Backbone:
């Protein structure tokens, strides 16, 4: 690009005296000037539809109509768009932010129709919805959604602890376990002088002891004792009785346990003893049992106050002299 | 040897616990005392029946 440079100073010729050869305006001088002008004009941009080559520096560019960028371009400075930009005809590729830390920055909000939420969100990506809308995600194939390992979310098949949830008409397909659920202990074949069930949960309020053909090798009464940390062997109130045609065994008081009246090594006892926690560490007992082949009925009731939370039950014989020789025992607790 | 059964319902473990020598001695003494008491009671009953018969 060439600027016009004057070759001949025609003004100086006016001061020259007549006859001075330099005073003459020559055609070659004029031609040189016109050639200089022609060269300069030919290398300058036209006002209408100019075509630039090389690097063009424009301090301020005001585009009143259409700005068409047809080749690969790099904007190295801060570009401020004062009116709404419209990106159209992006058929070949999409906008790519190669540096993830420099994505879109907006002082306002991105609407839901543009992939946003319509409200301002924070740096922790807390998505806040405005309005009463269902959160719907339509998927057409098996999809895994990974949630944080801890927090307040619940997953479909994970093991979480739910707090303050109300289940309306739940359908329980498996076997429920845990606090407040009726749970069976482990049935055991009775033998020896005692059968002790330990580690009973502290939340238990009712215990059912099942006597299934229980038999001992003597005629002494049986005792069911409870305890907290150890078996309690005193402080029981109540009585037990065995009803049989003859000879009848009257009711008797037992203070070392809840008594179950028996008087024959050959009988097998079937029935239940139920213990309920009326309040604190006070437990109330009752039982009704019977025998096969002897027409005996055993019944009774009582009460005991423990020093702590009940955690064990001991089924034994008076003074632990006789031994159990048949039958099974188990407990249900809830 | 005399024993007792312990059932841990938390673990489901069933344990047969044999008496210690001391526990066994106490147990044996209690059995002997019980047998003596029953024999004494039986003798008393028999004596009472004989007196009633006479």
Residues:
């Amino acid at each position: 690009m060439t600027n016009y440079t004057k070759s001949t100073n025609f003004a100086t010729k006016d001061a020259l005296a007549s006859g001075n050869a330099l005073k003459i305006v020559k055609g070659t001088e004029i031609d040189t000037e016109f050639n200089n002008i022609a060269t300069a004009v030919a290398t300058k941009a036209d006002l209408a539809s100019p075509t630039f080559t090389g690097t063009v520096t424009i301090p301020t560019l005001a585009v009143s109509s259409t700005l068409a960028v047809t080749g690969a371009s790099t904007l190295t400075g801060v570009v401020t768009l004062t009116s709404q930009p419209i990106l159209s005809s992006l058929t070949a590729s999409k906008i790519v932010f190669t540096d993830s830390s420099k994505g879109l920055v907006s002082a306002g909000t991105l609407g839901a129709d543009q992939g946003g939420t319509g409200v301002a969100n924070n740096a922790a990506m807390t998505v806040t919805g405005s309005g009463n809308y269902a959160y719907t995600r339509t998927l057409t194939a098996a999809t895994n959604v990974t949630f944080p390992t801890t927090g307040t979310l619940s997953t479909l098949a994970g093991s979480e602890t739910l707090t303050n949830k109300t289940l309306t008409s739940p359908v329980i397909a498996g076997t429920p376990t845990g606090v407040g659920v009726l749970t069976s202990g482990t049935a055991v074949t009775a033998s020896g002088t005692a059968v002790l069930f330990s580690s009973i949960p502290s939340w238990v309020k009712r215990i059912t002891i099942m006597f299934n053909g229980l038999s001992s090798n003597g005629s002494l009464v049986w005792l069911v004792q409870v305890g907290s940390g150890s078996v309690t062997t005193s402080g029981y109130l109540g009585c037990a009785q065995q009803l049989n045609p003859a000879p009848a065994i009257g009711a008797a008081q037992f203070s070392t346990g809840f008594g179950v009246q028996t008087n024959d090594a050959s009988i097998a006892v079937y029935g239940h003893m139920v213990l309920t926690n009326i309040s604190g560490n006070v437990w109330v007992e009752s039982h009704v049992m019977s025998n096969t082949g002897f027409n005996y009925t055993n019944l009774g009731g009582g009460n005991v106050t423990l020093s702590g939370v009940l955690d064990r039950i001991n089924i034994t014989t008076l003074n632990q002299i006789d031994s159990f020789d048949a039958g099974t025992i188990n407990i249900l607790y809830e | 040897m005399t024993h007792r059964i312990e059932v841990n319902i938390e673990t489901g473990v069933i344990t047969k616990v044999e008496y210690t020598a001391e526990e066994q001695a106490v147990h044996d003494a209690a059995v002997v005392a019980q047998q003596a008491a029953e024999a004494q009671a039986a003798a008393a009953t028999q004596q009472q029946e004989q007196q009633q018969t006479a």
Summary: The interface with chain A takes residues 2-12, 14, 16-17, 27, 30-31, 34 of chain B (CB under 8 Å). The beta strands of chain B are 3-8, 13-18. Chain B has a mean pLDDT of 91.
